[in-house]
Design a protein that fits this description.
Elements lengths: L13 E4 L1 H8 L3 H8 L3 H8 L8 H11 L3 H4 E4 L2
Antiparallel strand pairs: 1-2
Length: 80
């Protein structure tokens, strides 16, 4: 039998991407990151605007490598 709580609305928080801040701190442009990491320009733009619903692990690894940062520097879990 299914638990009714599974069907009730719950606020689980959100995932936020902090790429824009990191790129500004490191003085890296979208074009530069895109060309050096071989990531689509539009993908980086979407991540900078925090307007994406998913991120590929390979893209995340490339970003971390190129910006010399950790995953937790790029992605934040925020409880509302």
């Amino acid at each position: 039998m299914l638990d009714r709580e599974l069907f009730e609305y719950k606020n689980y928080g959100t995932i936020q991407i902090d790429l824009d801040r990191i790129m500004k701190e490191k003085e890296v442009t979208t074009y530069e990151l895109s060309s050096k990491a071989n990531i689509r320009f539009q993908t980086i733009q979407n991540l900078r605007k925090n307007s994406c619903s998913r991120i590929d692990f390979e893209v995340l690894a490339k970003i971390c490598y190129m910006l010399n940062c950790k995953v937790e520097d790029v992605i934040k879990y925020v409880i509302d």
